[in-house]
Amino acid sequence: MPVMDLRALDFVSHNYEQTLRYGVKLGQLLQPRDLVCLSGQIGAGKTLLSIGIGRGWGSLEQVTSPSYVLANEYSRADGAHLHHLDCYRLSHPRDADSICLDERLESGATLIVEWPENIASSLPGESLWISIGYVEEEKRNMAMRASGDRFEQLLDGFRKIAFQHRPA
After folding, report:
1. Could you give the domains of the chain?
2. Percentage of the chain modeled with pLDDT above 90
3. pTM for this one?
4. How far apart (Å, rounded) are the C-alpha atoms in residues 51 and 63?
5. Would you put residue 50 in left (φ > 0), alpha (ψ -120 to 50) or beta?
6. Please, what sign has the CA dihedral across residues 61, 78, 115, 153?
7. What is the DSSP string of 6-67?
8. 110-114 and 127-134 as β-strands: parallel, antiparallel, unpaired?
9. What is the pLDDT of residues 19-51, one digit of tens each?
């Protein structure tokens, strides 16, 4: 009998639309102060997943890549905030100060961080880390790792809504 690790989930997204849908499902589960880290090569699908997360979270604006501005902020009808950070251009963990990482979390914002490995030692110990890798043109491996009770619950919730089939 296979052993399920409650802190890990590996799966394949077969196309762009499926990656977007996975993002929507994840976004529906996010709460204030949640931290989602997205790691992967350029073009792997980090921003596409972020667009889906923003939709599921309820962003009033379309999520776009923050590559050139480092951070984009979005709001929801209830006044909650989602901050999408791109750390590609950051080269040292101390650069996390330049994007006000701690202040953003303390403010109650939900955070999506692309290229988190560039500031890894400045990140809180608890997060949901998603590594995205190429398989084929649109097909991607996704490896989710949860650190901390809140993120284990988040991963469990995602596993249930994304993969458990309900009878018709």
Report:
1. 9-137+154-161 (3.40.50.300)
2. 71
3. 0.91
4. 5
5. alpha
6. negative
7. TTEEEEEE-SHHHHHHHHHHHHTT--TT-EEEEEESTTSSHHHHHHHHHHHHT-SS-----T
8. unpaired
9. 999 999 999 999 999 999 999 999 899 999 999
